[in-house]
Amino acid sequence: MKKEPSQIVSRPRITEKSAFGVEKGVYTFEVSKDSNKESIKQAIKVLYKVNPRKIAIVKLPSKKVFSRGKNGKQSAIKKAYVFLKKGEKIDLA
Questions:
Q1: Cβ(41)–Cβ(54) under 8 Å?
Q2: Which domains does the chain have, with CATH numbers?
Q3: 32-89 confidence digits (pLDDT tens)
Q4: What is the pTM of this model?
Q5: How far is it, in rounded angstroms, from Cα 4 to Cα 67?
Q6: Which residues of 13-50 are buried (b: 16+ CB within 10 A; e: fewer)?
């Protein structure tokens, strides 16, 4: 079963750390848990019309959190660092 590019790359992950990476040509995205580097590369090509130079994948485990007097759980996610060639940019706005 082949997934649509928008199902593979869910959304950009915008944090203070990722904002510093954008200056160096590295973009961070949340991706589906069953995606691999090749499917992420194809999805980025289709969605953002750029050619990634390299992709690194990081799995973040779930965490126990305490908020407003209640115990909870933060979901595990998978994120991808997308490295672009010099001069290429992705408009996240």
A1: no
A2: 5-84 (3.30.70.330)
A3: 999 999 999 999 999 999 999 999 999 999 999 998 889 999 899 999 999 999 889 9
A4: 0.85
A5: 35
A6: beeeebeeebeebbbbbebeeebeeebbbebbeeebee
